[in-house]
Amino acid sequence: MTAHDGADIEQSRLKLLKELATGGQGRVHVVGGPEGLLFKQYLEPHKVDGAALSALVALRQGLGETDRQRLDREAAWPLCRVTDAGRVSGFLMRRAPATMTWRSSKGDEKLIELSYLLRPPKAAWQAVRQPTPSERFALVMALVDLFQWLHAMGLVVGDLSQANVLWSLAPHPAVHLLDCDGVRITGRPPVLAQADTPDWLDPKSPPGMVSVDSDRYKAALMIGRVLAQDPYVTPGSPVALGRCPRRAAGHSGAAAVGSGGREYGARPDLGQWRTALAGRDTIKLLATRPAPRPSVNRSLFDGGTHRERGTIRLRDTP
Description:
Blueprint (H helix, E strand, L loop, with lengths): L8 E2 L5 E7 L3 E6 L5 E6 L7 H12 L3 H10 L5 E5 L2 E8 L6 E3 L5 E3 L21 H20 L2 E2 L8 E4 L5 E4 L6 E2 L26 H17 L18 H13 L10 H7 L42
Helix pairs in contact: 3-4, 3-6, 4-5
């Protein structure tokens, strides 16, 4: 069995080993086989827009090899649909990178969610190494790069929160997006009714409605909260980006977080975030005094004193 060609697979062909998690929309199972895939089984398959899920699968299939590898590396993207008696029941996806998991004192494997960046470390999860300020900044830039890339492909991420973004520091700072069946192609309906996470809602967006502008608002929340190590930072509240390694980047980043709460169409896009977080100090330029003019002996020029002028001999003309 392979899921890489994007073709539908019958659920009866899957060997489900164990259930990893249960959420509001479905259960995630480990699937037996050499590929080590996961199966997200929808709790209410009759509410699934199968065509929207097929479009996400086709989008991945249509990418060039380099972009497809990047999508597989940075997102748990739907590889193919799973059907049961002719109805879409879920989809197959890759497991999160092993570097984005940790083991508790009881030996349980857990995902390294964004929530571990938003609060001071606790004894219960001391196995999760906290990033240095520079590493934290690199994680934020990885988030900006990922969202900007997805927007450039005409996608709306939708439900962004501390629970559906993973991160790691080894071998370098990197991020990974979960719940990618919640992503939708601009102008097309979502796979399921849009989900929203409390404390991550765009107050200027109607319930259940998402757009690139609402993504920008949630990106402002995510970036500000990661750099400030504060899960409650919102645009309009005082922001002290103490985890930003450069003063200039901290000042411009704080201003960008504040502007993230503007009206639709006026929120900074991800390219503006990259500029704001570039960390370039400003240098105040002062106007210089003009150089002093040299003294001039005016007697050398025509003036009140008459001077005899000579003549210039031109060549003889016929």
